[in-house]
Amino acid sequence: MKTLMKLLLFAVLEVLLCAGFTTDVYAQGLWGMLRHNDSLMTARYRSGNIDTAYITRPQTKWTVRGRLNVSGAKLEVEGVELGTPFRSEMTADYKSTVSLGVNYLGVALSFALNPAKLLGKYKDFELNLNSYSNRWGFDFIYQNAHNFKGWHEAEGAERIVLPPEVLKLKSLNVNAYYAFNHRRFSYPAAFMQSYIQRRSAGSFLLAVSGQGQKAETKAQYESVLRVTNIGIGGGYGYNWVPRQHWLLHLSGLPTFTVYSNTSLKVNDERIPLHYHFPEVIITARGAVVREFGNMFVGTSMVFNFTNIGDRSQLAVHNIKWRTRLFVGFRL
Asked: What pLDDT digit, counting tens, does each position of 283-330 carry?
């Protein structure tokens, strides 16, 4: 019996030792694989066809950034109805969110909260996606808003106050750019802080914009306005480095509509709307960044303006903007 117990004890010890050896080998293999992947990501992150006298990558691998985001929207309509000029203006409630983002060698993850949404004070939905690189980038903005309020006035009549829920707006705005001088001019240096602009530089930009919109109005009459526009154009962006650790960015991208499909239906009566030159979609961006060693603070802004239609019949102006305050550090 004692012999059998000894054999069992030796067998258990042998299994434990083998398991420990296997675990150690597995851990070493996993650690080696992680180090290999990190080396590949680092090499990819550091490489690139850039002029390092103008732009460089940060020396660190990690970037942590906190942001306060505020956005708004406005819809302006003016035209002539039965020979009487009229004008309306509707403004949506501001949307405010706080977010925290982490970037590791160009791979980013962020999380955002809307305090008013959590408290039930903001019921609209808005989605903002953006990606900026030195060569190209885009903004994708979707909004489903029911909280517009404003006014309507016609010539010779008193102004009418329009309460919330009169206008329901679903809109999608997409704009993209291509930077020709991407070796020296960096959009992400101003907006993502994944590059550092060392010297002032600018670039001509190629731009494509698109907008889709459905606006439903329920007041003294019911109307549905549907808009689809695609624009092509170009502009210019400039990163100004007035002194070390400062960066000021400004860019403008006007695009002219090359495809337009607009329809208006009022009380089940369809009103034809024709293209009127020039119909434009304008995207403007601005930013200010200040660095303190491995820390940075700043603010940025994206502004979208769309003009379609003709005042002699119906003209629609859409304004969408977003501003950010941010602070971060690199590790």
From this structure: 999 999 999 989 999 999 999 999 888 877 888 889 999 999 999 999
Tell me what percent of the residues of the chain surpass a pLDDT of 90: 37
**Residue pointed to by tokens 């704009």:** 175
Q: Which stretch, 7-11, 71-75, 221-225, has highest mean pLDDT?
A: 71-75
Length of the chain: 331
Q: Which residues pair with 87 in a beta bridge?
A: 78, 153
Q: What is the pTM of this model?
A: 0.82
Q: Encode burial over 175-207: b for 16+ CB neighbours within 10 A, e otherwise.
A: bbbebebbbbbbbbbbbbbbbbbbeebbbebbb
Nearest partner of 227 among 124, 75, 71, 85, judged by Cα: 75
Helix (H) or strand (E) run with residue 45 in it: helix 2-46
Residue 31 pLDDT > 70: no
3-state secondary structure 127-153: EEEEEECCCEEEEEEEEEECCCEEEEE
Q: What is the CA radius of gyration of the chain?
A: 28
DSSP tally for the chain: helices H, then strands E: 3, 18
Separation of alpha carbons 36 and 16, rounded Å: 30
Strands 269-272 and 246-266 come out as antiparallel
Q: Which residues in 121-153 are b (16+ Cβ under 10 Å) and which e? A: ebebebebeeebbbeebebebebebbbbbbebe
Instruction: Count the neighbouring beta carbons within 10 Å of the beta carbon of residue 2.
Output: 6
Residue 184 CB partners (closer than 8 Å, separation 6+): 50, 51, 54, 55, 199, 201, 203
The two three-digit tokens of residue 302, written as one number: 């994206």
- Evaluate whether 123 touches 83 at the Cβ level (below 8 Å): no
Q: How confident is the model at residue 145 (pLDDT cuts 50, 70, 90)?
A: confident
